[in-house]
Design a protein that fits this description.
Helices cover about 0% and strands about 30% of the residues. The protein has about 70 residues and is mainly β. The radius of gyration is 11 Å and the shape is globular.
């Protein structure tokens, strides 16, 4: 598991177009300061590109799927 700040990094695992309905590849580490962990070996379908993507890849169409302040 890798730890990232979801406000500054645009990884597939946190993009709303990365199809992971149960959010099994991510979990909060310290959500108060936007630190989350993600499984860097996970793969899911991108709903925009219709192609299976790695969770650690960067997304050009990134929109955060988490509702944070």
């Amino acid at each position: 598991m890798q730890t990232v700040n979801i406000k500054t990094i645009k990884k597939w695992s946190f993009c709303k177009y990365w199809y992971d309905p149960t959010n099994s590849a991510i979990k909060p580490r310290t959500p108060k300061i936007n630190l989350w962990e993600y499984d860097d070996k996970a793969k899911c379908m991108c709903l925009k590109k219709n192609f299976e993507m790695h969770s650690s890849a960067f997304c050009g169409d990134y929109e955060l799927k988490l509702n944070i302040m």
